[in-house]
Design a protein that fits this description.
- The structure holds 2 protein chains of 2 kinds.
- By secondary structure, chain A is mainly β.
- Chain A contains no helices and 11 strands.
- The N and C termini of chain A lie far apart (about 35 Å).
- Chain B is an all-beta fold.
- In chain B, about 0% of the residues lie in helices and about 50% in strands.
- In chain B, strand 5 and strand 6 form a beta hairpin.
- The relative contact order of chain B is 0.33.
- Classes of the chains: A mainly beta, B mainly beta.
- Chains A and B meet through strand 10 of A and strand 4, strand 5 and strand 9 of B.
Chain lengths: ~110, ~110
């Protein structure tokens, strides 16, 4: 079993739709959680950190459920420019800032 | 302020050869991590360098080795290349510390024939 698991998609949604991605992690020692965005043939870039209290950045909302070891990302009012692969990432801080990535979920937003 | 840079951009090698990839961290960063991303997969942690020493290592064989120089730049070496080593190799830099953001370079795409 992979340490971080995501539905690979693709999720094909129309502009303006709301889409949600989920992710589960297996190592209960994980301390920090993130969503990264990766455009085709580009490097990953940090989208947002994820906190137990939940956090929002514009159209993006991230949630963490430590008891269920589950992370989510909600995108509201999807734009064409949101088309990318979204990577769920965990960090076992006692492992010196070593990031463990999920396989990514591909999102395609269509006109 | 230059971000993380990597060279070369693309590389083609044959099985059994050796390759060296290079990374210059973002200005002010002292820690460099290397990741391997196979097509359609998420990046996998190879190892991390701080103060010119390997501090953490992922599940990669000894054919993968690295080095960090006094100016914090880093090299990744892969010996006895296999077809399965074909991937995008990403370098990430950060300040030392458990939760500091890692900034990724554009990567080196290695093809092994």
């Amino acid at each position: 079993r992979k340490e971080v698991e995501q539905d690979p998609g693709p999720f094909n949604v129309p502009e303006g739709a709301t889409v949600a991605f989920n992710c589960t992690y297996s190592n209960s020692a994980s301390q920090s959680f993130f969503w990264y965005r990766q455009d085709c043939r580009k490097e990953p870039k940090l989208l947002m950190s994820v906190y137990s209290s939940g956090n929002e950045d514009g159209r993006f909302t991230a949630q963490l459920n430590r008891a269920s070891q589950y992370i989510s990302l909600l995108i509201r009012d999807s734009k064409l420019s949101d088309s990318a692969t979204y990577l769920c990432v965990v960090n076992r801080n006692n492992a010196g800032n070593m990031l463990t990535f999920g396989g990514g979920t591909r999102l395609m937003v269509k006109p | 302020d230059a971000g993380v840079t990597q060279s070369p951009t693309h590389l083609i090698k044959t099985r059994g050869q050796q390759v060296t990839l290079r990374c210059s961290p973002k200005s002010g960063h002292d820690t460099v991590s290397w990741y391997q991303q196979a097509l359609g997969q998420g990046p996998q942690f190879i190892f991390q360098y701080y103060e010119e020493e390997e501090r953490q290592r992922g599940n990669f064989p000894d054919r993968f080795s690295g080095h960090q120089f006094p100016n914090y730049s880093s090299e990744l070496n892969v010996n006895a290349l296999l077809l399965g080593d074909s991937a995008l190799y990403l370098c990430a830099s950060s300040l030392t510390g458990d939760n500091n953001e890692q900034f990724f370079g554009p990567g080196t795409r290695l093809t092994v024939l």
